[in-house]
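Progress against Task 2.4 (sequence-to-structure conversion) is shown through the following example record, which the project officer requested during the mid-term review.
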Amino acid sequence: MEEKEHQKMVDIVIGMQFGDEGKGRIIDLLAADYEIVARFNGGSNAGHTVKIKDKTYIFHLLPSGLLHEGVVGLIGNGVVIDLGQLIKELNNLKKMGFQPQLYISERAHLVLPYHPVLEDIEEEIRTKKIGTTRRGIGPAYGDKARRDGVVIALLKKPDELADVIINRVKEVNLLLQVLNKPLLNADDIISNLILETAEVKDLIVDSIAFWQEALTSGKKILLEGAQGALLDLDFGTYPFVTSSHTMTGGALVGTGLPLKSINRVIGVYKTYISRVGGGPLPTEQVNETGEYLRQKGKEFGATTGRPRRCGWFDGVLARYTAFVSGTTEIILTKLDVLSGLKEIKVASSYNLDGKVIEHPPASITEFLRLLPVYDTLPGWEGNLVSCRSFKDLPFEAKEYVNYLENLINIPIKAVSVGPERDQFIKR
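Structure tokens generated for the chain above:
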């Protein structure tokens, strides 16, 4: 038993840019080789898209690997859960013929009806908009940090649950009253939560005991991150970040798995870069190129439907997130989107006030003054969607992949050339 506990059974998939790198479909591709797939951060602000033949599945809370029969899903303690959204996703999968085996950590926290209300207020009064999804994720994490959160374990203790919600609603209503906004009813929130609890109570587990048993049994585990590394609360472009930790450290804290269990950290990069909402995007192209990438790459948010800002691949940010996340290998997505461009640019460094720098600054004011220093590579023609091996790609496409591999100095193990499961090239 002791020997198995020390085996490295856990792999982590992390989006290495600002989200929307295609993590969902990568996790779906990989999940067939694992027995457990777990989400470790974020909430229903995530939008992971998986396309299988003529059907498209969009996950907000469920782990993307649940589309494989026999794969067990876990929502980790680091996730904040909107129970209504979770139940809706589960029911949708069941209607499509899936029978997902899902568990929820009793240490995870709930997103409750007053959280989106608070987020709306916060976003309205900001002079510089963050561009949140307004699903209450930030306020839910805020309540967790200020020790006013509702942990899943309280669903089994109705009296304690009611006390926490009643007290919090009183506080929120004081603010709403001052702002002359409609007040919330604690009894309605509690009653609805009781109904939702009846649908999920059998899914709630002690996740630490769950992981101990899984590691002891030698189960292969895949951890799934939401958002992207550059939206990390500590290491992203603060304050234009999400409310959770999106990198490898967040995977450990968001599940309770030990460091010694980690085997691989798989970083997912898009062949260009995109961002939803406010915040710096040094290589953004507000021109025909940006629109070309947006339309051809279908760059519209899976959660919000908002158009994404698009730009050239940012090598400075790519090296930074690879280092902070401890990335061991890379999967590159949407290589097919670049087909048809005469030339392709990559930022290899920045110019900040006349000085060349190779690391992103922590100061947001400095970040907004960055000017990318580009390397220019030749583009290529032709549709890549039918390519199934690396040698099938145009010479320039292969050179682009090799260039990025050398730039980041992490091996690129696979490249996607389309949204389908088989449009995936291993190197």
